[in-house]
């Protein structure tokens, strides 16, 4: 995850010790840029003087870092999409698994569907190989009972998964593009992509024939 540091002026720490206390506690909590935005708002409004440990539910997407961020906060609480959520465990799955092949084929089909209106400029992509596949368990919450255990032991799931979620990395032809996607399986034949399909290698001038910023990572010009 990106490194982020905060240095507080000594006079602020002396005058508002609760704000500093909350900031230090939040170092070990799930935070996001939305929280930094709320922190800046607190600074401009001079509201860090009202920092408190009282938590309002439902949790807002952003919480000032000068306020108490709950240990139990999940990615869903923080407005972080599951594909970008760092709070999950995973187990490797064989890339030769038939189910994983269906998942990868589904994602490639989705990419080609997104490119369909540009078919006169962009070639149709085909799956080349599945590089890595994982079954993921996400939306974890902090477990109060295991503070002294290994990092991932500090988390529990509030409820069991009803659907399977996979993280797959694969490449396609003819562009040699590598893509990563989080896919949810609702049953053996129905899938949905959670978030967006990410490109993990450079595309250079491969998509110079189009101007759509969202689709440039997918298009391989004819």
Automatic annotation (TrEMBL):
Pfam families for this protein: DUF229
InterPro entries to which the protein is assigned, alphabetical: DUF229
Entry's Gene Ontology cellular component terms: extracellular space
Name of the protein described by the UniProt record: Uncharacterized protein
């Amino acid at each position: 995850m990106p490194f982020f540091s905060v240095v507080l002026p000594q006079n602020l720490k002396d005058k508002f010790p609760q704000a500093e206390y909350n900031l230090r506690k939040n170092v070990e909590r799930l935070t996001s840029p939305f929280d930094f935005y709320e922190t800046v708002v607190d600074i401009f409004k001079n509201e860090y003087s009202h920092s408190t440990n009282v938590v309002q539910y439902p949790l807002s997407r952003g919480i000032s870092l000068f306020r108490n961020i709950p240990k139990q906060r999940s990615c869903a609480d923080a407005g972080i999409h599951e594909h970008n959520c760092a709070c999950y465990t995973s187990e490797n799955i064989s890339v030769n698994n038939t189910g994983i092949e269906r998942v990868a084929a589904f994602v490639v089909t989705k990419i080609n569907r997104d490119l369909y209106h540009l078919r006169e400029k962009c070639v149709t992509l085909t799956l080349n190989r599945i590089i890595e596949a994982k079954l993921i368990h996400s939306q974890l919450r902090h477990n109060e009972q295991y503070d002294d255990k290994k990092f991932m032991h500090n988390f529990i799931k509030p409820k069991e998964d009803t659907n399977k979620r996979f993280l797959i990395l694969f490449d396609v032809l003819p562009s040699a593009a590598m893509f990563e996607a989080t896919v949810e399986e609702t049953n053996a034949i129905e899938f949905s992509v959670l978030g967006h399909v990410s490109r993990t290698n450079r595309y250079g001038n491969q998509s110079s024939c189009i101007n759509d910023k969202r689709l440039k990572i997918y298009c391989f010009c004819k």
